[in-house]
User: Which sequence fits this backbone?
């Protein structure tokens, strides 16, 4: 077997305080060609003494370095993770769950990414705002983080805040800014300096302590995390223009033509070397922000009480009223998991060799998740190449190539899995269950004998019968066959959670 990963033990938050303390003393284990030197940041008070222009030099997070925040992030920063909207572009994966609860990388869920980034960055007070299909998300957060935060001097927490109606506000969340506004009464009770506002559906690894440090040293009201972009990708993002101090002066949403060229910036100001700055002359907002506490309260209550969205309303408005809005460059892997195609590519990206797009094997910044206490995966005479296998799988005499196999997956003899993502199952069927189903002509959970699955996503608890072919032979790009148990988007077949595909079917 070549290039196979069997994920039999994922990190859990039970001892994460000790781990994160030790991790800050370790260097990154990423390959050298993945590491970018981090230039210095001119401190704010030194700038005031010498009256020198502010020069921000922040290229973050492909290498972890020690930061010295004063006061410490654990007591001075409140993390706010936004659960997102209805997730219609990710449907049918969001049919029965919120976007952040969608499974990821065989063992995890999307919400584990921002929560783990917070914990690894010593941000220990975390709220997750939810609205749509939140039962699965709430259950996962409770099981993963609900009983393990007492080690933070009983001050750390990961707490879910659901959308609610009140006499003052009878509406549900209308957008990112409105969601935060509706809970400002709670957030302002915390004796903190900054709000760290994050999305629950992005895949990346980031050291927020450096992000917060840059915010403080530039004396900013708001700091926006930004990605360097080439011209080809830039047209799909909201772009920002900065001055020679890294201060954001202008925004443009998905510009094209002359408007795009007008948004070019000198990204060496933010820390890129000259060669990469020529390749990446644009910066795009990642939807990740640090707000000073007073600035957040002022903007949402006084300046823009009716604004619903941070990216399109509040932050451009803050620049217009003269607030200091800084850009902070993140020069690492980042993916917005907003569509089926993006989700599919992000998952299969972890199988790439020699280096995956995103690694779950970084000891200095692990990704935590719910402890499930599953047995190791069992593989019997299978040919498995360039794949990742989750916990508790049973794989029999089949062929798997370039695929991600989720926890508790059962794959029968003769099956072929190629370029696919199997999310696995929430439970095992007993022998009695399987015998009963066989007696009535039913289909067991998992992949049946001699099934062939290619370029597909199989959601949890799906039942794929014997001799089924899910290969999209006709090359259909878009199809909605919900009553038959599947959708096709961007040519990728997605079998719905709990769906049954009877033996002998071809899709």
Assistant:
């Amino acid at each position: 077997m070549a290039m196979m990963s069997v994920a039999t033990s994922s990190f859990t938050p039970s001892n994460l305080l000790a781990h994160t303390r030790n991790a800050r003393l370790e260097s990154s284990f990423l390959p050298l060609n993945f590491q970018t030197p981090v230039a210095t940041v001119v401190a704010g008070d030194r700038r005031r003494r010498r009256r020198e222009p502010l020069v921000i030099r922040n290229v973050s997070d492909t290498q972890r370095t020690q930061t010295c925040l004063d006061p410490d992030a654990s007591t001075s920063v409140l993390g706010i993770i936004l659960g997102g909207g209805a997730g219609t572009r990710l449907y049918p994966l969001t049919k029965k769950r919120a976007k952040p609860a969608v499974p990821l990388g065989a063992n995890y869920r999307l919400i584990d990414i921002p929560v783990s980034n917070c914990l690894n960055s010593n941000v220990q007070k975390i709220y997750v705002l939810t609205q749509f299909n939140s039962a699965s998300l709430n259950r996962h957060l409770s099981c993963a983080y609900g009983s393990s935060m007492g080690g933070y001097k009983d001050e750390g927490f990961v707490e879910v805040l659901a959308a609610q109606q009140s006499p003052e506000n009878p509406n549900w969340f209308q957008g990112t800014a409105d969601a935060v506004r509706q809970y400002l009464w709670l957030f302002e009770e915390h004796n903190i300096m900054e709000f760290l506002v994050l999305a629950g559906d992005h895949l990346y690894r980031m050291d927020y302590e450096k992000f917060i440090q840059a915010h403080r040293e530039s004396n900013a009201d708001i700091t926006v995390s930004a990605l360097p972009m080439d011209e080809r990708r830039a047209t799909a993002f909201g772009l920002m223009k900065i001055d020679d101090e890294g201060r954001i002066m202008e925004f443009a949403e998905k510009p094209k033509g002359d408007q795009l060229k007008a948004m070019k910036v000198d990204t060496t100001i933010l820390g890129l070397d000259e060669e990469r700055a020529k390749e990446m002359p644009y910066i795009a907002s990642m939807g990740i922000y640090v707000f000073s506490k007073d600035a957040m309260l002022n903007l949402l209550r006084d300046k823009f009480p009716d604004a619903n969205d941070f990216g399109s309303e509040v932050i451009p408005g803050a620049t217009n009223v003269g607030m200091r809005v800084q850009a902070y460059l993140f020069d690492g892997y980042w993916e917005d998991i907003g569509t089926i195609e993006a989700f599919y590519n992000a998952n299969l990206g972890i199988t790439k060799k020699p280096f995956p797009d995103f690694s779950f094997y970084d000891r200095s910044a692990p990704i935590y998740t719910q402890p499930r206490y599953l047995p190791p995966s069992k593989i019997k005479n299978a040919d498995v190449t360039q794949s990742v296998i989750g916990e508790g799988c049973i794989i029999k005499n089949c062929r798997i190539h370039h695929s991600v196999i989720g926890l508790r997956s059962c794959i029968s003899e003769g099956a072929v899995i190629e370029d696919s993502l199997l999310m696995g199952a929430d439970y095992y069927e007993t022998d009695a269950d399987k015998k009963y189903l066989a007696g009535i002509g039913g289909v067991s959970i998992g992949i049946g004998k001699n099934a062939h699955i290619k370029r597909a996503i199989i959601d949890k608890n799906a039942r794929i019968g014997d001799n089924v072919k899910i290969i999209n032979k006709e090359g259909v790009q878009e199809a909605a066959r919900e009553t038959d148990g599947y959708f096709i988007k961007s040519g990728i077949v997605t079998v719905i959670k709990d769906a049954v595909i009877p033996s002998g079917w071809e899709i």
The chain is about 20% helix and 25% strand. The longest helix spans residues 135-145. The first strand starts at residue 2 and ends at 6. The chain has a mean pLDDT of 86.
